[in-house]
Amino acid sequence: MKLYTYWRSSAAYRVRIALNLKQIEAEMIPVHLVKDGGQQHTLAYATKNPSHLVPTLELEDGTVLTQSLAIIDYLEALNPAPALLPTDPVLRAKVLAAAHVIAMDIHPVNNLRVTNHLGDMFGADADAKKEWMCYWMEKGFEALEQLVQKDTKFAFGDAPTLADICLVPQYYNARRWGLDLSPYPRLTEIEKTCLALPAFANAAPEAQFDAE
Amino acid sequence: MKLYTYWRSSAAYRVRIALNLKQIEAEMIPVHLVKDGGQQHTLAYATKNPSHLVPTLELEDGTVLTQSLAIIDYLEALNPAPALLPTDPVLRAKVLAAAHVIAMDIHPVNNLRVTNHLGDMFGADADAKKEWMCYWMEKGFEALEQLVQKDTKFAFGDAPTLADICLVPQYYNARRWGLDLSPYPRLTEIEKTCLALPAFANAAPEAQFDAE
């Protein structure tokens, strides 16, 4: 299979972690989100992904899957071990909710196309965009610090789940934009535990062959 | 169980549809998102939902679940029939992706707290907020029109799935803000089919006892 990816996209980063955890091989096809006015807007790519976003997973038979969390759901069905979601329905809903605090409440509002549009519509400069991004990360991390478990190795239990897979890329963004992470000691500890695993470290932006 | 809800919240609307489809009874507890500076910010509510968002589901034993799609995942486990996601992994990922085009790419960027923050940070007035919301709905609906199936009764197949559950509340918002829906004939047809079902119609904002 092929993963259309961009080194700095945190949605693509999530899928790279999941592929590594499940030891599924995929060819990485870079889609540069900035160069050439954004390669995600080419007709060839937009035909696969009508949202003009990364990632996209293309299966051997040409089937195309979009949306990072939907792709990870597919990978979970393909290779159920190691499981990225618990079987207990309540715990599973709690892991999903923690993942969604990142994937719904923070990431979409801070997406490149959204901050670009802030520039187009309101003349937001680099400082205003950074302030905007940090505002939503603070709100989300504050909630997430309370939603994760307290005495476990990872966000939920002693193995990585979808919550960790969403947290680590968002933390990467937070560091990139200079957010003060000291109010979130538990999240910071979880990030450290995750990045000690090769599945996470090898999925990091700087470890990608298209990194600049 | 209790659902903390607000009549106009499209995330709460999704959960109301899912409860109805699965014929699960829940007591509706209104949380007014505008009155009193937003009742979602009270300590009593924020203790249950640290994201200060609706909906929240509280189980009989006091367990609290947050995030609409995580709550629906729990309801799916509790009452598997009728299924809101197909069993085939590829089709399941496609339904999830369509749901996430709404729940990740449109709804979070148009959330009340985001448009409020546009006002605070950039002085966006009512017209600018409307323009912002319509911009993201257009982008999302354009993609979604291509992602749903063509000759089925609902978005995928002949029974409602999570994709329909996400579409209908977003279409409610689109109509509220006067978006031209003529470029999306397939989505418009799906909305009509859904709203003919009591499970959808009874979950609509105007049918709620806290509607104004």
Automatic annotation (TrEMBL), chains A, B:
Keywords: Isomerase. One of its GO terms (molecular function) is maleylacetoacetate isomerase activity. It is an enzyme of class 5 (isomerase). The keyword Cell membrane does not apply. Residues 88-212 form the GST C-terminal domain. InterPro entries: Glutathione-S-Trfase_C-like, Glutathione-S-Trfase_C_sf, Glutathione_S-Trfase, Glutathione_S-Trfase_N, GST_Zeta, GST_Zeta_C, GST_Zeta_N, Thioredoxin-like_sf. Residues 1-83 form the GST N-terminal domain. Pfam families: GST_C_2, GST_N_2. Its EC number is 5.2.1.2. The keyword rRNA-binding does not apply. Belongs to the GST superfamily. Zeta family. This is Maleylacetoacetate isomerase. It comes from Aliiroseovarius salicola. The gene is maiA.
